[in-house]
From TrEMBL, chains A, B, C, D:
<dbReference type="GO" id="GO:0000976">
    <property type="term" value="F:transcription cis-regulatory region binding"/>
</dbReference>
<keyword id="KW-0804">Transcription</keyword>
<dbReference type="GO" id="GO:0003700">
    <property type="term" value="F:DNA-binding transcription factor activity"/>
</dbReference>
<feature type="domain" description="HTH tetR-type">
    <location>
        <begin position="10"/>
        <end position="69"/>
    </location>
</feature>
<keyword id="KW-0805">Transcription regulation</keyword>
<dbReference type="Pfam" id="PF21597">
    <property type="entry name" value="TetR_C_43"/>
</dbReference>
<dbReference type="InterPro" id="IPR009057">
    <property type="entry name" value="Homeodomain-like_sf"/>
</dbReference>
<dbReference type="InterPro" id="IPR036271">
    <property type="entry name" value="Tet_transcr_reg_TetR-rel_C_sf"/>
</dbReference>
<dbReference type="InterPro" id="IPR050109">
    <property type="entry name" value="HTH-type_TetR-like_transc_reg"/>
</dbReference>
<dbReference type="InterPro" id="IPR001647">
    <property type="entry name" value="HTH_TetR"/>
</dbReference>
<dbReference type="InterPro" id="IPR049445">
    <property type="entry name" value="TetR_SbtR-like_C"/>
</dbReference>
<keyword id="KW-0238">DNA-binding</keyword>
<protein>
    <submittedName>
        <fullName>AcrR family transcriptional regulator</fullName>
    </submittedName>
</protein>
<dbReference type="Pfam" id="PF00440">
    <property type="entry name" value="TetR_N"/>
</dbReference>
<feature type="DNA-binding region" description="H-T-H motif">
    <location>
        <begin position="32"/>
        <end position="51"/>
    </location>
</feature>
Amino acid sequence: MTGQLRADAKRNRDQILAAARELMVNQGAGVPMEEIARHAGVGVGTLYRRFPDRVALLRALSVHTIENMTELARTALRTEPDAWTGLSRFVRECVALRLGALRSIVDPELHTALRQSDELRSARTELLRIVEQMIEAAQRDGSMRTDVGVVDVAMLVSLHLKRPFDVPGTTPVDMDARLTQLMLDGLRPCAATPLPGSPTTLADVNWDADR
Amino acid sequence: MTGQLRADAKRNRDQILAAARELMVNQGAGVPMEEIARHAGVGVGTLYRRFPDRVALLRALSVHTIENMTELARTALRTEPDAWTGLSRFVRECVALRLGALRSIVDPELHTALRQSDELRSARTELLRIVEQMIEAAQRDGSMRTDVGVVDVAMLVSLHLKRPFDVPGTTPVDMDARLTQLMLDGLRPCAATPLPGSPTTLADVNWDADR
Amino acid sequence: MTGQLRADAKRNRDQILAAARELMVNQGAGVPMEEIARHAGVGVGTLYRRFPDRVALLRALSVHTIENMTELARTALRTEPDAWTGLSRFVRECVALRLGALRSIVDPELHTALRQSDELRSARTELLRIVEQMIEAAQRDGSMRTDVGVVDVAMLVSLHLKRPFDVPGTTPVDMDARLTQLMLDGLRPCAATPLPGSPTTLADVNWDADR
Amino acid sequence: MTGQLRADAKRNRDQILAAARELMVNQGAGVPMEEIARHAGVGVGTLYRRFPDRVALLRALSVHTIENMTELARTALRTEPDAWTGLSRFVRECVALRLGALRSIVDPELHTALRQSDELRSARTELLRIVEQMIEAAQRDGSMRTDVGVVDVAMLVSLHLKRPFDVPGTTPVDMDARLTQLMLDGLRPCAATPLPGSPTTLADVNWDADR
DNA sequence: CATGAATGAGACTTCATTCAT
DNA sequence: TATGAATGAAGTCTCATTCAT
């Protein structure tokens, strides 16, 4: 899709995306477009040429993010000895890289607008498919409780993407790791308390983990 | 503290707080002050007379929220047969009522400004003290893993205050309940994997769970 | 006019005027009405009962000021050995007391509104009459140039009412005194250069020295 | 400094300055920014792009004004036969053109803010230097009293920049001229009465005559 | 195509004035 | 009658988006 861009145009596009990611992750999705442009070293006009409005920019960012996560999942699945270890690693990496920190977007308008992208939807499905594989494998070999599904895991991860407040007495990194571990332990069969409802299947999902 | 207000002024103040809570919980902390005023049925001027700026409003809202949570914690502690049951109930209620949904504030400036309120700080400490009691009791009778502290629990709850996206196949209420249960199961001793770092003590905490 | 006020009402009125004078002289005529009320120790409502709007307040202040100046002029005329000395003293006192510092009002709307007060006009005329007496006497005995009239003097004084900027190397008081002296020396016959136009007579004057 | 602006941007900038000068001279420094923009034929946004806030605008205006005055002083010094004539002409021109009428700024906040501009300070010093030359020359050849310095003259001129009230019986122009002449006559040696304090030297001056 | 200037709607806040208590 | 609460118009400033260069 970006293949037919001229070399410099491509470079611009990438710089814009990088700047947008950095600024939005740190300051929320509301950063002035002009500031994004400045950080990217281009004029606003150029930004708007590439991304007609803020939503388009967010969409591109989200797709990019999901593709990164997919890559992480694939690698974890291929590299780790068993499914549970792979899943754990994937979850830890997602949280650590805070690849979904754009989650801080709350504006429901943006929310709605984002959902409507086909590109986004298919990237997401692709990701979910792989994670579901890991989950099912882990459940088969008894290392994961069987009353949870991809959607549960996805929601959990998405909750943990929020940057934690600085708490005196711990480093943010430690805090992150502790919370993630607690979440993973909750997915083990051992302490499993029955859950209300039933796990959602991948089929009818519309997951927004990216935000 | 608000006792010396005239009857009508008090009524206005309450309406403003109610409107602000509702709008901020749903649309984020950025709702136009004017819209808050309109929903409360007063002029902007009135809003500003009561709360000199957005931060003051948020502060009042936060204190109110925390006081509600404290009340819930007290009741749970008093009513339930054992500490773990009490803690679970408290956590479920917090999440269900989404009493801390203001958490959606991301703007770091607001964040910082809020921390500086003594009133807020003491309300928070009060709440933490009670929760810590429950935790310690539960740990003593072996129903809770011993490598976690109030701060861990607080952070966990705060993560779960984010309103989950609507997921096809489950109701939001069910989703909420599932995620909360998973979190609680992670706090049980049975599946406990060692955590990095160590639990923070109440003493040096500065917790912002309310937002 | 204020005679029929109840004792406490009179006290309120005076406190308001005093507060208004102080605040307006220091911060300009734009001080919030509420601040004036607060300084006077009354509610805004009371202020507005006494003075229907800002202009009314200014008018009262101006009349008061002019009456003070008139008193100064009378005393100088009566006490000093000769007219020129009396006039000099009067001018110096006006500047020193900055009795007209309200002059800082620039808003033309206020300006116009103020002119329309009969009370003000007659107080002003009264003052000008006395000053004119001093001028004419001084001119008769040769201590003052004869090509200037009350209006010239009035305008000069009014110019000098502006609080001078702080200048390093001199005290404001000294600066004031120097400038006033230079002005007075310019009124002496000795260095007199012919002036364009002719001195305006008291008759058709509408002088706003009070501001 | 404004050389690198695009042609249209430069035109806008100039129109804004012109509009601001006109409006501020007549109505005080408080004119709504929006009105300035309207008069300049641009949107508010444009105004704010050029001048981030009111103070920046005033600063630019002041620098411009001072530069004009400096030009006048230079010409007077070069053209007139003797120093006193040059100084008189310069003073008359300043008053007539009311080149410093922005003096009507009273708001102490603006005042303070303005002082902090280096550009302004150096423009001012440049002007004072030339005026000081004229003064010293005039004093050397005996046409000016020797107990006054630049600062005295500067303060005097600054006082006379206030637009005089319309007085029946004289034209404003005549009135201006009369008052200016009186001021000049006061600077002559003949009638000189001793002044309190001593003239401030240029070295430690921080003069704000421009406003 | 890139740039950055211009626009103008809209958010925030202040205050003069009115009015309920 | 005094108070101070409420109102809302008005002013300041910001920023998404369009458009001339």
